[in-house]
Design a protein that fits this description.
Radius of gyration of chain A: 19 Å
CATH architecture of the largest domain in chain B: Orthogonal Bundle
Shape of chain A: globular
Number of domains of chain A: 2
Number of helices of chain A: 8
Strand content of chain B: under 5%
Largest sheet of chain A: none
Structural class of chain B: mainly alpha
Strand content of chain A: under 5%
Oligomer: heterodimer
CATH topology of the largest domain in chain B: Arc Repressor Mutant, subunit A
Radius of gyration of chain B: 21 Å
Amino acid sequence: MTTPRRLTDAELEAYLEETLAAEEMAAIEAEIRQRPELLRRLSMILGRRDAGLHSVGEIWRRHRLSCPDRQQLGSYLLGVLDNDQANYIRFHLDKIGCRYCQANFADLRLQQEETQELIITRRTKYFQSTAGHLRQTP
Amino acid sequence: MSDADTLLIDRIRDGEADAWTDLIARYEGRLLAFVESRLGRRAPSEDIVQEAFLGFLNSLPNFDGKRPLEGYLFSICAYKLTDHLRREGRRPAVPLSSSNDSSGEWHIAGSERPASSIARSGERKDMEERAVAAALRDQIERWAEKGEWQKLMCAELLFVRGWANKEVAEELKLSEQQVANYKFDFIARLRTMVKKQELSAEVFPELADEEPA
């Protein structure tokens, strides 16, 4: 997506949360290398948070208040949503650049393309490397 | 958290291997997509997802069941990813206060942020956040039910992206006056809710008095 102008505080907050689209994250890191004063703005944002101030965007992102659910993303992928809802999901994915929804969408798309063998191999690896830590917890 | 996830977590807490397999199967793909979009390399991305699953199991005794499972897993993954990016020198360490030197040095960030200030306001802050999140959720659901997608997009660009009214107007092909009016109504509703719940307006700087343009 195109970021038309100076980075906003809301975008820098999202950067700190690692929730912006990957290409925007990389672009911000490149910009910080060029303009270290951005670090000062990031630092001020952390300071505001630590002082207990809220921002609407931060709450909105953290609670994922407008994220479509996985079923809606699947319907969007299949092209079976009505135009208005599909337009909104496209906006949320591309213009807002919600990284969590982008990840879900990419996963749904990949499930149609990846071989079952590859998926099972990966899941088995995760299981074998972590199951030793599975234990009864109160 | 959904009923299905609650059940799954209960079974994992009982040490059921099948439940753990189910959780991995349900979430690994989206977590891997989240990490790989940033790293661009499959092998280290898989390692980070693996670390995230391990982190999840280790944190399970403290996991708050009210929190959505997907969001919790994403947050662990984001933390592991951020740590990895810092070690690679791709993500900068952010100085702790605006008075610190910010010469652009990129190094491993410490976690020396002042814990006392966070702890002092933590409980109250959570309560304020939950109240505002509930009000926002109601508003967003109303817009969706009425098909007022443009108002939703407008608020999202203004507050989630932080764009100026003029930019939002251009993007959504609205007049600046329409954007200003939507913004004013939105803020007024939130401000009313904050007052009704006797929350301190001071901790929501965006809800300061504002007149439509």
